[in-house]
Amino acid sequence: MDNTQVSAIGVSAPPREQAGTRSVAITMYCILLLSYVLMAADRYLFPVLAPYVRREFGFSAPLTGLLTTIFTLGLGAGGLTTGYILSRYSRKATMLVGIAIFSGATALTAVTHGFWGMLFCLAAQGIGMAMLATSMFALAASYFVTYKAAAIGSVNFCYGIGGFVGSSLAGVLLVKYANWRAPMIVFGLFGFVMIAVIAVTVRGWFSETRGAAQARAAASGGAAGLLNRNTVLLTILSVIHGLSMYGFLGGYASFLQETLHYTPTRAGFVVGFFAIGALTSIAGGWLGDRFSPRIVLSGAYVCIAVLGYLFFQVTPSPVTREILTFAYGVVGSAILYVGLAAYHVRSLRSSLASKGSGMFVTSLYGGAAFGGYLIRALAAHGGWLFAGVIQMSLLCVVGAVLALALRPSEMNA
Fold it and tell me: In angstroms, rounded to a whole number, what is the distance separating the alpha carbons of residues 126 and 105?
């Protein structure tokens, strides 16, 4: 397939002097996506294990909630920083360092004693995740030029796979070894296997592809810097979604176990349906490419506001909870998360894709860092239903209104 054919389908071709073909490039992309599956799995481990950690160390409920989402503080701190790192160093090197950091931190959490040591490891885990996530979003947006949102959706599709694997295997390994440390060590060590595979198989001509994005930069529109109306609004919207989504992810498994007396395996299975919903991310990305950001984002926030009220009712059956969690995965992850990531990139010139993806990661996970703590604190004050209404429903209504102020005409194609 020649360069003209590749460009026709919206994929930036590798330089002529390189020997790679599109099929080889897609294979390498799939290998990188596997590392994203691992990263997503690592994210889901601690919320399932949190009740056992709390029992062993005697942590309070709010502090336990903070531990379930503190990795997002590292993600928030690392996102925009990674955007600038990528202007100096290769994406491949940044990804490898990121995988080493989050995998090492995951394993070290199992041998760390005390709250502060555990907090540090889980926050460091997020820094490594930010390096991988920001690099992957920038690579997807640069390689699949015409279909940015759908390409980012393919990355989030792998998040869905990893989330289901992580939450499910966490419960299985916990029961098998009767020790919450076992899942952390197993997943941490597998990360270093992925480093070796990527180092050997992924070539620089693919991981550093940016030719088509640069060629389109002058004509594609988008702002020349981060201080523009769309990016500011999307930053606020991302903070709101981070607080809402990670309040749910950080607290729902504990709600099921502590209030409804679900087993760890059963709670992990229910939460895993969020990840199954995320498997629709490619379709969700297509919606983001096809329809106005105002319609996509406002509609998604309204849906989450309704779900936030329903989640913490005590009457729904287990099957109903699985359906609701799946619906939240579709709306909150496949549509809203993917849409926010893509619109951050589209709000800037194509040559600034790394900064756009970095701002998305920083804003969403900066808010998410406090999602687990806030929902636990609200639940302690007024109960889980009160917490869901405030942190999910009310916040998302505000988000739906703000999304209507976006200016799609100022975004790039």
Answer: 9
Structure token pair of residue 247: 């309040």
Contact 357, 131 (CB under 8 A): no
The answer on pLDDT for 2 being more than 60 is: no
What are the tokens at 116?
């502060």
The phi, psi pair for 277, rounded to 5°, reads: -60, -35
Q: 141 near 152, Cβ under 8 Å?
A: yes
Name the maximum alpha-carbon separation found in the chain.
64
The pTM of this model reads 0.77
Give Cα separations from 246 to 28, 274, 281, 388 (angstroms): 31, 12, 18, 12
Sign of CA dihedral 407, 341, 391, 67: negative
**Residue in the block written with tokens 């600034």:** 352
Tens digits of residue pLDDT in 118-135: 999 999 998 999 899 888
The β-bridge partners of 144 are: 11
What is the rounded CA–CA span in Å between residue 391 and residue 305?
A: 9
Alpha-carbon distance of 362 to 92, in angstroms, equals 20
CA 53, 59, 65, 66 torsion-angle sign: negative
